[in-house]
Design a protein that fits this description.
- Helices cover 0% and strands 70% of the residues.
- It is mainly beta and 121 residues long.
- The strands form two sheets. Strands 1, 2, 4, 7 and 9 form a five-stranded antiparallel sheet that branches. The protein has a four-stranded antiparallel sheet with strand order 3-8-5-6, with no helix packed on it.
- It is elongated.
């Protein structure tokens, strides 16, 4: 297996939005059509609210590939998100992104310890 793309971000990123907002994006290029790749994304996220939904999703070329809608039990308590999947991808330039949102735009979502990688299967 060969790693095609990798990105990590340790610092905290904050979002105040009820619409999905990109927190990190990684562009990568593949050279063969219809090849299988492994996509892995990890992050920790917290919200300033309690009993509201915080949503985290992974987008590949504008298409949702994984999603977690999480009811926050305690404000500030980190929630670990991990997505691991395979995808058949054609040759060309691609974009993998991590997006978050809250059910209320006044909530602050903090995302940290982001890891994104794409590996040829």
């Amino acid at each position: 297996m060969t790693i095609i793309a990798y990105e990590s971000y340790e610092s905290e990123l904050t979002v105040n939005s009820a619409a999905f907002t990109e927190v990190i994006s990684k562009a990568f290029t593949t050279t063969q059509d219809n090849q299988e790749y492994i996509i892995n994304v990890y992050c920790e996220a917290t919200s300033t609210s309690t009993n509201r939904v915080m949503s985290i999703r992974v987008m590949l070329d504008g298409v949702e590939g994984a999603r977690d809608d999480y009811m926050v039990p305690t404000a500030g308590l980190p929630h670990a998100f991990a997505a691991f999947r395979t995808a058949n991808i054609n040759a060309g330039l691609h974009a993998l992104s991590l997006e978050v949102k809250s059910t209320n735009a006044s909530d602050t979502i903090t995302v940290r310890r982001i890891r994104v990688y794409v590996m040829k299967h």
